[in-house]
Amino acid sequence: MFDFLDSGQYDLLGAFWVTVQLTLYSAIGSLIWGTLLVGMRVSPVPLMRSFGTGYVNVVRNTPLTIIVIGCSLGLSQTLGINLGADNFKDIGFRLAVLGLTAYTGTFVCEALRSGINTVPVGQAEAARALGLSFTQVLRLIVLPQAFRSAVTPLANVLIALTKNTTVAAAIGVGEAALLMKEMVENEAQALFTVFGVFAFGFIVLTLPTGLLLGWVSKRVAVKR
Amino acid sequence: MSGVSVTKDAGDAGDAVPASGDLVVLSCVNKHFGALHVLQDIDLTIARGEVVVVIGPSGSGKSTLCRTINRLETIDSGAITIDGKALPQEGRELARLRADVGMVFQSFNLFAHKTVLENVTLGQLKVRKTDKKTAEEKARALLDRVGVGSQADKYPAQLSGGQQQRVAIARALAMDPKVMLFDEPTSALDPEMINEVLEVMQQLARDGMTMVVVTHEMGFARSAANRVVFMADGRIVEEATPDEFFNNPRSDRAKDFLSKILHH
């Protein structure tokens, strides 16, 4: 039943390794971008606030496929922005990370904003009363506590991101979903086995993430 | 109005004589919360070294008054100056000024993710740019002074309310403030913990710290205040020395208030 896997024709581990890399780079990117976005959304500067709110509401509600294909066709092929890569493989990978980051950052932002809402107003007031600036209050007092209470929603975002990397197949990035498409075509007789193998692969990636971060969220919870 | 301030002859009152100069001046301050006129033409002058206790019924605007002094609440009109400088708009200037104004809150507001020691060193390190060793030495000395030195490495949630409030006082003192604001510092405490906080405040008052204290503790007002300010419905109704105020209140509003809290 699994003999097609032994044929050496398909690099299953290699494909999942690309999925892992896409996930890691996009996770780091969207964590940074989402933190900046939430900083803008709660900032006292009206222009930054409206940019943050506008960006989140537009990008969060745009299908990821459109964003990723837009990066490929729009940025790369039309505008010639290749993010410093020179071969097709690297360009596709970097564009996919860019698209995933732009998209997932909005969910990170909103998860963090819900975390910020769990931090009592008095914490920020006490920090301001000490003479800390807005960015210091955010960086030293509010965000550290917000992150701790946002671990569980952030884990959800990370799991969704892991599975969303499959959209990168649409612009030809050689990750798991692209290999699956190829195998579905070539191994039609083993269709359900192919589905099963890939579903299992994603569960192997996401299940420990959820369990680990669930444990982390309990460990780092702020006691009040 | 500052002429009303009188030296309190409590023990070593030598230091408590208000030095020359007005430290905090509020003139014609007005503030609204929607339709509610919470501060109405407030004029108040606090001299250097003076301890002013603000009392009054709930909703009279006393907490709001306290919070306008370091601009945690903005005002609609009027002017507030601290040590001769007008309160600036939100930004770097305001942050610098806030560093000189210590504040103690009703709900303590210790930074929940930081240890007691970190709570007291944070402002020194990040605002005053003190080096770590000096900041920690100072923090430990202050924690000893308020009697919680042995709790330095615990988190706020592991302390009792009274201990937390004393840490909060130490945190404010670590900035070497020119004036300390106390916004109902004992209202969230269990009765048996109120005294430990009041004692620290008494000591501060004796050491000559300029203090504005919003409180319901009439005992503290009697023993530590240079002046009592009685507020009702957003106005300062009466200002007097504690003896005068508690023994011979002039206004009916104050008489009514005192009759309710002193006899039951």
UniProtKB/TrEMBL annotation, chain B:
SUPFAM superfamilies in alphabetical order:
P-loop containing nucleoside triphosphate hydrolases
Subcellular localization is given as:
Cell membrane
Note the PROSITE patterns from the entry: ABC_TRANSPORTER_1 (PS00211), ABC_TRANSPORTER_2 (PS50893)
Q: Which UniProt keywords apply?
A: Amino-acid transport, ATP-binding, Cell membrane, Membrane, Nucleotide-binding, Transport
* One MF annotation (Gene Ontology) recorded for this entry: ATP binding
Pfam families of this UniProt entry?
Answer: ABC_tran
Question: Domain ABC transporter spans what residues?
Answer: 24-258
Any coiled-coil regions, as ranges: none
In the bilayer, the protein is annotated as: Peripheral membrane protein
Q: In which family does this protein belong, per the annotation?
A: Belongs to the ABC transporter superfamily.
The family database entries (PANTHER family) matched by this protein are listed as: AMINO ACID IMPORT ATP-BINDING PROTEIN, GLUTAMATE_ASPARTATE IMPORT ATP-BINDING PROTEIN GLTL
Name by which UniProt lists this protein: Amino acid ABC transporter ATP-binding protein
Native organism is Streptomyces chengmaiensis
